[in-house]
Amino acid sequence: MASTADFRNGMCIKYSNDFYTIVEFQHVKPGKGAAFVRTKLKSVTTGKVIENTFPSGAKVETARIERRPYQFLYNDELGYHFMHTETFEQITLPEDHINNPKLLKENQQVEILFHDESETPIRCELPPFVELEIYYTEPGVKGDTTSTTALKPATLETRAEIKVPLFINTGEKIKVDTRSSSYVERIKT
Question: How many helices (H) and strands (E) does the chain have?
Fold first, then answer.
């Protein structure tokens, strides 16, 4: 247990039957009334950010979340299978535990967050950016080599669909933002 005086950015707490990390907090002492702490909390399981106000001195339950390196192996009807990169232990996670499963490819390095006390996996996080090959997209039109405002659909090697600029062609490698499933840049070979 900790009080609001112990709050710091990055601290993980249990609140409303979920785990949250403190993104931002501010102690407020108004001219009238009791002091309070205004916070922005990010859910570890869903990634959603909420705002909440705690009375000054309120007790909260802290939680230890541990990040462990894993490698994606494959998926089937049982779920997504991962292997710990150091111990070679394998685990299976359901699709809703992964922040963007459509961008996972075999041998992809990920981090899986575990609740330290119960040893249960909470969430699988991909790196912020991944490099993927364009499996199929309509051919680029001559003269559209510099425009980045117009976008067209493209299917990636993982079969995920995103929007890419008109000058991107089938077979090219691109960098994709896993948080928004959006095109970042073309990888020069």
Answer: 0, 16
Strands 59-62 and 36-43: unpaired
Record the tokens describing residue 91, joined without a space: 């685990």
Token look-up 């102690």 returns 27
With residue 164 as reference, give the H or E element that holds it: strand 161-165
pTM score, two decimals?
A: 0.78
Range of the domain at 35: 2-62
pLDDT (tens digit per residue) in 49-97: 999 999 999 999 999 989 999 999 999 999 999 999 999 999 999 998 8
Distance CA 56, CA 73 (A): 47
The sign of the CA dihedral 164, 167, 171, 176 is negative
What is the spatial distance between Cα 50 and Cα 39, in angstroms, rounded to a whole number? 8
Q: What is the pLDDT of residues 20-57, one digit of tens each?
A: 999 999 999 998 889 999 999 998 888 889 999 999 99
Domain end marker among 62, 93, 108: 62
Choose one of 74, 108, 125: the last residue of a domain: 125
**Pairing state between β 18-28 and 36-43:** antiparallel
